[in-house]
Amino acid sequence: MSNFRVIDIHFIAVTALQHPDDNSSHLVRIFQYTLHPVSVYVIIKRRKRGELMNIAICDDDENFCQTLCKMVQVYLQNANLDAQLHIFASGEELCQAMHHEQIALVFLDIELTGMNGVDVGQVLRHSQHSDVQIVYVSAKEEYAMQLFQNRPFDFLVKPISQNRLRMLMDEYFRIFPQEERYFSYTSDRKKAQIDTCEILYFESVRKQLRMMTINGTILIYSKLSDILELRFSHRFLRIHQSFLVNTQHIAQFRYQEVILTDGTTLPISRSYQDSVRDYMMQHSQERAKRRNGI
Questions:
Q1: How far apart are CA 51 and CA 73, in angstroms?
Q2: Strands (DSSP E) along 47-102, which ranges?
Q3: Which of 25, 5, 26 is nearest to 76 (CA)?
Q4: Residues with Cβ < 8 Å from 111, sequence gap 6 or more?
Q5: CA distances from 229 to 94, 224, 225, 244, 248 (A)
Q6: Which of 5, 47, 212, 252 sits 20 to 30 Å CA-CA off 281?
Q7: How many domains does the chain have?
């Protein structure tokens, strides 16, 4: 049985939302976003405690939002996964919501009125939520070069089939499993945990590890080999005897170095060049298969 349930999805008049149902007190949250001339609200009920991941759909096409929302719902139910769904009618609404919602995955239309999808992607990549995974959506296919700088997770061409969405979501949860999201560590004799999405890389310094995060440096007593034994290690790539890099934050590969999303340049040692090249080829092939629906 899935740990989440979509109670209802309504496309109703804005005025009707001004009088909430008296029975709505049992709901965890009600998400309401304007889709002129009507509004959408997606009601999610939790069955267990714990933070759920947030998935956003940003498109000014009401019918498409409804269709994609139901498709994501079907996937989550079949995969027995948790999520909260948010729907936005404009890029401006999405950017504003990102100030108070930690959104992990967003399906972003390119041809939005106002801020288009490329502009929104640039804003997200330069914000505190630069780790959000963007799936661009369009009825056209000629946007590849424009989107490259925003490092999208994938690109979907409308209309989207359930099978194509399933392949994309399978790949997303393979790379970002919900149960493996946090890394527990000890620093200065205090136990703590961090979202792995916030880790840029680990650097081995004598008997310590320097964990570089989007918010600063944390020193921990551990070894790179210990990190590689953890369940989330598939998100990281060994590029050097001293460096283990979060693949999510790799902006560019070069023959002897990688450039991270924060501008940091790290060396690829000669002994790891083959494995890094193999990773690059496998990653490119997997993305190509997803795009071709294989």
A1: 18
A2: 54-58, 84-88
A3: 5
A4: 117, 138, 139, 140
A5: 37, 9, 7, 13, 19
A6: 212
A7: 2
Higher-confidence residue of 83 and 42: namely: 83
Q: What is the pLDDT of residue 6?
A: 34
Where is 73: in which H helix or E strand?
helix 62-79
What is the percentage of the chain residues whose pLDDT exceeds 70? 74
Domain assignment of residue 190, given as a range: 181-290
Last residue of a domain, one of 178, 207, 236: 178
Cβ atoms < 10 Å from Cβ of 139: 12
**Which stretches of 85-241 are DSSP H helices?**
91-97, 117-125, 144-148, 162-175, 224-228
Least confident of 48-57, 107-116, 214-223: 48-57
Domain boundary among the residues 157, 178, 199 is at 178
277 plus 221 within the same structural domain: yes
Does 174 lie in the same domain as 225? no
pLDDT in tens, 54-103: 899 999 998 999 999 999 999 988 876 768 899 999 999 999 998 888 88
* Spatial distance between the Cα atoms of 31 and 29, rounded to a whole number of angstroms: 6
Q: Are residues 242 and 172 in the same domain?
A: no
Residues in the chain: 294
CA–CA separation, 151 vs 187, rounded Å? 32
Report phi then psi at 212, rounded to 5. Answer: -90, 120
Give the highest mean pLDDT range of 46-50, 139-143, 223-227: 223-227
Cα–Cα dist 74/162, whole Å: 9
Q: What is the mean pLDDT of the chain?
A: 77
Strands laid side by side in the 84-88 sheet = 84-88, 54-58, 103-109, 133-138, 154-157
Residue scoring higher pLDDT (199 or 15): 199
Same domain, yes or no: 145 and 226: no
For the whole model, what pTM was predicted? 0.53
**Neighbouring residues of 242: CB distance < 8 A, sequence distance ≥ 6:** 203, 204, 205, 224
